[in-house]
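User: I'm writing a tutorial on reading structure tokens. Could you give me a worked example: one chain, its sequence, then its tokens, then a sentence or two explaining what the tokens reveal?
Assistant: Sure. Here is the example chain.
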Amino acid sequence: MFGLPLLQHFVTVTTSEASSPGTPVGTPVILFLLILVVLGSLRFLVEVFRSPAQRGRRPKRRPRGQRPPVAGRPASDGRQTVLIDGSKVIYWLDNTPQLAPLLQVVHDLSRRGLKPGVVFDANVGYKLMGKFMGERDLSRLLSLPRDQILVVPKGQQADPFLLETARDLKARIVTNDRFRDWADRYPDVARSEMLVTGEMRDGRVSLRGLEMKAGEKVGTL
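And here are its predicted structure tokens:
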């Protein structure tokens, strides 16, 4: 607000002084330089006073850790999910809890182009390693993404979680359990194509009932 009037006053005064008799020849040059200095100072002040408004117009920064949306990013990789009854499959070798049979089942399903998902009882870590293990720990052991592993809450059975998830995903289940206690609530567990049984034979896992005819639907639980 005060920059332009001040400049006009300064120019008027210096011009009148320059035009008066007896002014040295070098005075106009000096005055011209002074005007340049004043103009530079005024420009600096204008930029200083304008900077807060400019900062207010800057786009807000994205919160740390928040990734920008990816256009066209698929919600799923398109593979058919097959669930594994993890707390029972670990007993397939010598009827003692071991990770080896489960690792082989995960590898077998992945090799077939299927998407393995594993459901565990809350105490699976104590059976395998003598300590509690959550999804993060088990994902490292199985080399699976964390979202493909479920450890049910303490004090609850894994069976209803397993059957509910299988129904929602229209997935088969790798297990030797027949789920007879849940047949009334989930009658489709009696369908032969829903359950994939298996065993360890000569140190290798053998799965039965995994192959299905092309286009055949699993059904719903």
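What the tokens reveal: The chain has seven helices and six strands. The chain has two domains: 3-17+26-56, 81-208.
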